[in-house]
Design a protein that fits this description.
- The protein has 15 helices and 13 strands.
- By secondary structure, the chain is of the alpha/beta class.
- It has two domains: about 270 residues, Carbamate kinase; about 100 residues, PUA domain (Archaeosine Trna-guanine Transglycosylase, Chain: A, domain 4), CATH 2.30.130.10.
- The strands form two sheets. An eight-stranded mixed beta sheet has the order 3-4-2-1-5-7-8-6, with helices on both faces.
- β11 and β12 form a beta hairpin.
- α4 crosses α5 and α8 packs parallel to α10.
Length: about 375
């Protein structure tokens, strides 16, 4: 199946599109923001909006813009310097968007998020409602991580990951990641002249992740590997991803009409629900539960809940409702879920039958440590 066929056949009903724009696209060779690129992208995205699409932008570039203002040639390495650069650069980034979109009578809105905003279910839903309301008003949201206040424990890690989480947040139909190269190659195109662009990736497996090399750019965060990981998260949600060169004129139009540009990552046929995707990829686990072989097989192969009898030990300190990793006897993580009991409670009831919980604790919330509705099996560990 060619990319052109799949795009025309599967993407013909696309409406909501998350467009992630990398720093390498928005900056010039000298390191500052490239106003020409902003104008070109504003023209293309405004045209998408006019033609009935619902674009949501996830934009990098604040730190890069701040670096120019601060006279820095390399990306800051410690958090206070990154936060200062982001604070200085965010206004410049949004000014470029405001000015460029204004030429096409298109309004935009700045939305700054931290991982903590999406980890809390109520705030997650609030963010979804805000983005939906902006869409109702015909306004294009421009999302960025709130780098000026984010610290390591509440950071998304990179905007590729943020774009995948945003895809789930808004229930988008397509994720487009615009970068400064043409897509995923079978080798490093900077080192190998005969490296070939991969047009379609049917499944993101270990081999695909292995060939996704890391970047050495002083501006960007991550590299192709983070784009592949973002595409993998979107695929599990049932959404295709296209990674393409954002510096090519008319790139978004070419993608929409089905031209064979960039690399298309196909979605999974079975779509994970939004809530389970949130559990698996948005929440940061607070601890770990080691289960026996029987419990692991029951969860993975039969879709069962985790009962106290299958728990061997725990790591970490966590409360009711927190996310935890589940590991089997081989010590590999195979699932994630939301616990019905705290770490101290599970320590007391591990190995017990459900009928013994109340006698041990003096009360019982649920029979299950983790109910199957709050449990997500990680596909890479399925057997």
């Amino acid at each position: 199946m060619t990319q052109e066929y799949l795009t025309r056949d599967t993407l013909k009903d696309v409406k909501s599109i998350v467009i992630k724009i990398g720093s390498g696209v928005l900056t010039s060779d000298e390191g500052g923001l490239n106003s020409k690129v902003f104008k070109g992208l504003a023209r293309e995205i405004s045209l998408l909006k006019k033609n009935g699409y619902d674009p949501i932008i996830v934009s990098s570039g604040a730190i890069a813009a701040g670096m120019q203002k601060l006279g820095l040639t390399e990306k800051p390495k410690n958090i206070p310097q990154k936060q200062a650069a982001a604070a200085v650069g965010q206004s410049a980034l949004m000014w470029n968007y405001e000015r460029s979109f204004a030429e096409y009578n298109q309004k935009v809105a700045q939305v700054l998020l931290t991982h903590d905003d999406l980890s809390n279910r109520q705030r997650y839903l609030n963010a979804r409602n805000t983005l939906s309301t902006l869409s109702d008003y015909g306004i294009i949201p421009i999302i960025n991580e709130n780098d000026s206040v984010a610290v390591e424990e509440i950071k998304f890690g990179d905007n590729d990951n943020l774009s995948a989480l945003t895809t789930n947040l808004v229930g988008a139909d397509l994720l487009i990641i615009l970068t400064d190269i043409n897509g995923l190659y079978d080798d490093d195109p900077c080192q190998k002249e005969d490296a070939r662009l991969i047009s379609v990736v049917k499944e993101i497996n270990h081999e695909i992740e292995k060939i996704a090399g890391d970047t050495t750019s002083p501006i960007s965060v991550g590299g192709m590997i983070t784009k592949v990981q973002a595409a993998k998260k979107a695929a599990i949600f049932g959404v295709p991803t296209i990674v393409a060169n954002g510096k090519l004129d008319g790139i978004l139009g070419k993608i929409i009409i089905g031209e064979d540009v960039g690399t298309l990552f196909l979605p999974k046929e079975t779509r994970m629900t939004s809530r389970k995707h949130w559990i698996a990829f948005t929440l940061k686990p607070k601890g770990e539960i080691l289960v026996d072989d029987g419990a692991q097989k029951a969860i993975v192969n039969k879709g069962k809940s985790l009962l106290p009898s299958g728990v061997l030990s725990i790591k970490g300190k966590f409360g009711t409702g927190d996310s935890v990793n589940l590991v089997g006897p081989d010590r590999f993580e195979f699932a994630r879920g939301l616990v019905n009991y705290s770490s101290s409670e599970i320590t007391k009831i591990k190995g017990l039958k459900t009928g013994e919980i109340e006698g041990k604790l003096g009360y019982k919330y649920f029979d299950e440590i983790i109910h199957r509705d709050d449990l997500v099996v990680l596909e890479s560990r399925k057997s």
